[in-house]
Design a protein that fits this description.
Elements lengths: L1 H17 L34 H18 L8 H7 L3 E9 L6 H19 L14 E9 L14 E2 L2 E3 L2 H4 L6 E3 L7 H4 L17 E6 L5 E4 L2 E5 H7 L6 H10 L32 H14 L24 E3 L5 E4 L28 E2 L6 E21 L11 E7 L4 E3 L13 E19 L7 E10 L2
Parallel strand pairs: 1-2, 1-6, 2-3, 6-8
Antiparallel strand pairs: 4-5, 7-8, 9-16, 10-12, 11-16, 12-15, 12-16, 13-14, 13-15
Helix pairs in contact: 2-9, 4-8
The structure holds zinc ion (ZN).
The site of zinc ion has 6 residues, from helix 8.
Length: about 475
């Protein structure tokens, strides 16, 4: 409990520090300089070695003298962590601390806006230094609002939370509504990210990672791993803009990036370009911001227990073949014909390397007491060219054994087909069983397993090799 209070305090100190941003500025900065240099798109083999020389010293200075000393990336709940945990997805609850009604169109626009703003950041990680995701799927999974009648034309599939707590800020600023709507703690990643064994009621899809927190009469913005807070009218008036200055800035904080209010907080000699993270300096993400984000990723991914798919030791520039074969398993959503209630199908692609076929030190997938034909499935958010899978079977010497046989199937757009020229299909315990096949372009893969006699089947890890294009 104490620990939790500490966590809350830490997050709220972020709120207070950041809410100074543009405290008395109008919603659109009057002081936005255009950045002359073009944004460089990532190719599939971009690494830190590709950082332009003119950015290097300031980016390194900020990492060393700000982010490291302030512990900006210590909490394992940055957007990087959230995207990994959500397998390429981010879920929001919109916290509507306002008396303004919201139309269905506005709610749909807000959901699209969040996806657009988030991808303005994450598109620069695509193809960069082992980052495994492309387009990030951002969903609004609920609205928290004190008065539900403000949500006009509410649809049956919209989730609405009406519990409130008292916003302490309202005692200092009475123009701010005292009633602060909240979504349930049980589905909040912020409340549970430090517990690797926590499972969300209703499954991972039902959790929310962050709030978009819109507050009536709020000045400026605030951001942290809990989400982004800004003025309700700012949210509504900017919702269809391409790049939204305060929203992108606050999302930057949710990636761990810092503010630069004071001169001593900035690199000696200043910045070589404008930056959206210095309030009022840029109304869009600049090359400096892109490389600060990428640099941050290159540093934190060295913790392979935190980001298990990126196992390369980052000593100097990484040689990456554009046709490199990569394991895309961790980017998939895993499902199965049946999973025992105490096991977890997400074990298939959690990146854990088993020591043997009865290694229960991490979550495992098993379908006891089911027998006969069972399947596990990977769904990808885009088409991949795949030509190999590696399966580590679960065998516990009790009710779970390796299968009698199995097939690899792919989704052909209309139904399931067997892969062609499959070689391998091994069932050895205590090792990966590689199967190669003629490359197929697909968005879904299945392993269809036939059980051995009265035993059930299970898998500790399932890797899928794709050509990284
Ligand atoms: Zn800020």
């Amino acid at each position: 409990m104490l620990k939790k209070k500490g966590m809350m305090a830490a997050s709220f100190s972020v709120v207070i520090a950041s809410s100074l941003l543009m405290g008395n500025a109008s919603f659109v900065s009057a002081d936005a300089h255009m950045n002359g240099s073009a944004v460089v798109a990532a190719t599939s083999n971009t690494t830190l070695a590709d950082m332009p020389a003119y950015l290097k010293s300031s980016v390194e200075w900020v990492w060393k003298n700000r982010m490291l000393t302030e512990g900006s990336t210590n909490r394992k709940n940055l957007i990087f962590d959230q995207i990994f945990a959500g397998k390429g997805t981010l879920n929001y609850v919109v916290r509507w601390q306002s008396s303004k009604p919201v139309t269905l169109q506005q709610r749909q626009d807000i959901a699209r806006m969040l996806g657009r703003q988030m991808n303005h950041w994450t598109e620069h990680l695509q193809g960069y230094d082992g980052w495994p995701y492309k387009n990030i799927k951002v969903k609004v999974v609920g609205w928290a609002v004190a008065d539900p009648s403000l949500l006009l034309d509410k649809q049956p599939d919209e989730v609405v939370y009406t519990d409130t707590i008292v916003d302490g800020l309202a005692s200092e600023q009475p123009e701010i509504p005292a009633a602060l709507p909240v979504a349930p703690n049980e589905i909040s990643r912020f409340e549970h990210f430090s517990d690797p064994n926590y499972s969300y009621p209703g499954g991972l899809d039902k959790r929310f990672d962050m709030y978009l927190w819109a507050t009536e009469n709020f000045g400026g913005g605030a951001g942290g791993d809990w989400g982004q807070r800004m003025n309700d009218e700012y949210v509504l008036s900017t919702v269809n803009a391409d790049e939204i200055e305060i929203t992108e800035h606050e999302m930057g904080h949710s990636f761990g990036l810092n503010d630069f209010y004071e001169e001593h907080e900035r690199p000696p000699g200043g910045f070589p370009t404008n930056t959206i993270m210095w309030a009022g300096d840029s109304d869009h993400i600049t090359d400096w911001d892109i490389w600060m984000l990428r640099y941050t990723w290159s540093q934190i991914k060295k913790d392979t227990s935190r980001f298990p798919t990126t196992t390369k030791d980052d000593e100097g520039p990484i040689e990456t073949d554009p046709n490199e074969i990569v394991n895309i398993g961790p980017a998939a959503i895993a499902s199965s014909s049946y999973t025992s209630s105490w096991e977890n199908v997400s074990a298939l692609n959690d990146g854990f390397e088993p020591a043997n076929s009865n290694d229960r030190s991490h979550a495992v997938y098993g379908n006891w007491p089911e027998t006969g034909t069972q399947w596990v499935q990977y769904d990808f958010d885009q088409e991949h060219t795949v030509s190999q899978t590696d399966v580590y079977w679960f065998k516990d010497g009790a009710g779970i054994d390796v299968p009698k046989s199995y097939k690899i199937k792919y989704w052909n757009g209309q139904g399931w087909s067997n892969v062609k020229q499959a070689k391998g299909l091994g069932t050895a315990a205590d090792q990966y069983n590689a199967t190669t096949f003629a490359p197929v372009k697909t968005t879904k893969l299945r392993i269809e397993m036939v059980s051995m006699g009265s035993a059930s089947t299970g898998i500790l890890e399932w890797k899928v090799a794709a050509i990284n294009k």
